Amino acid sequence: MNPPLPSLHPFSAAQSPALGGALQPVFERGLHQPSEGEPIWVIRLSPGMIAPSRHSDGPAWAEADLYSSKVHRRCPVIGRWQGRSVLLSLVRHAQAKAAGWPGTRHWLLQADSPELDLLITAVSLAAWEEQHQFCGRCGAATQARYDEYAKECPRCRLRQYPRISPSMICLVWREEELLLAQSPRFQNGMYSLLAGFVEAGESVEEAVHREVKEEVGIEIQRLHYLGSQSWPFPHSLMLGYWAEYHQGEIQVDPTELVDARWFHWQDLPLLPPPASIARRLIDQFVEWRRHAAED
């Protein structure tokens, strides 16, 4: 007999297995304007790339510095981390490419859980800063607000906030197996879960049914929500579900996937990194099946 499905609980990049999944407020979002000479963190990045630190007194992707209004006045402040304000230094893509900066995924895949929350935020906001320099209604150059993280048009007063795109990610299971798929973006043979964006006018649950049907041709039942995680490709909020297989045979959509197949929970392929919501959903399923096998 199967044990009950796991209860709902929040996923967070700041969760720590050592603390039983408790949230750690290691990154505090907000407009913390630093004072002259105050210690700060600076993350140098462009869309899709983050610079390695030139110093050894901090993370490999952030530099410790002292705030100077002359040097840093154009750098957006995104919050505080380890007691210091975090600033973004935005660089043109051509310059970052010429310097050979590592790609965003390189840093995300090797970050530990407390660092991942900050990195995801920095990458998402850097993309938003780069893409919203002008008003989408009248075309005037936008200006940053200082009472909230937003941009405002000085001509027509249209206010814009960082974009968030809801998307679903789903672990489909049947008895002892779970369905895993390989995207053409995966270069190392990794398998992960089915995912896709929620379309206009659609509920997340409708999106789960639709995406699973479109990508692998099967029907599902008994959706069970487990939690969410932001992911900066490009600005997703991933809503994580389990769903039980209902009927149908796997028919892979070649425009979306390279492969999809059932795997026994004790014989899994290369999986996403532990801090990702995909891996957390998979790990919870393995733990659930292990408890069922022990009963």
Automatic annotation (TrEMBL):
Could you list this entry's UniProt keywords, alphabetically sorted: Hydrolase, Magnesium, Manganese, Metal-binding, NAD, Zinc
Q: What is the residue range of the motif Nudix box?
A: 196-217
Annotated Zn(2+) binding lies at 135, 138, 153, 156
Q: Which reaction does it catalyse?
A: a 5'-end NAD(+)-phospho-ribonucleoside in mRNA + H2O = a 5'-end phospho-adenosine-phospho-ribonucleoside in mRNA + beta-nicotinamide D-ribonucleotide + 2 H(+); NAD(+) + H2O = beta-nicotinamide D-ribonucleotide + AMP + 2 H(+); NADH + H2O = reduced beta-nicotinamide D-ribonucleotide + AMP + 2 H(+)
Relay the cofactor remark from the entry. Answer: Binds 1 zinc ion per subunit. Divalent metal cations. Mg(2+) or Mn(2+).
Residue positions annotated to bind substrate are 105, 148, 161, 229-236, 278
Domain Nudix hydrolase: where? 162-286
Residues noted as binding a divalent metal cation 3 in the record, renumbered to the chain: 211, 215, 256
User: Where, in this chain's numbering, is a divalent metal cation 1 bound?
Assistant: 195, 215, 256
User: Which PANTHER family did the record assign?
Assistant: NAD(P)H PYROPHOSPHATASE NUDT13, MITOCHONDRIAL, NUCLEOSIDE DIPHOSPHATE-LINKED MOIETY X MOTIF 13
Quaternary structure annotation from Swiss-Prot or TrEMBL: Homodimer.
Q: What does this protein do, in the record's words?
A: mRNA decapping enzyme that specifically removes the nicotinamide adenine dinucleotide (NAD) cap from a subset of mRNAs by hydrolyzing the diphosphate linkage to produce nicotinamide mononucleotide (NMN) and 5' monophosphate mRNA. The NAD-cap is present at the 5'-end of some mRNAs and stabilizes RNA against 5'-processing. Has preference for mRNAs with a 5'-end purine. Catalyzes the hydrolysis of a broad range of dinucleotide pyrophosphates.
The name this protein goes by in its record: NAD-capped RNA hydrolase NudC
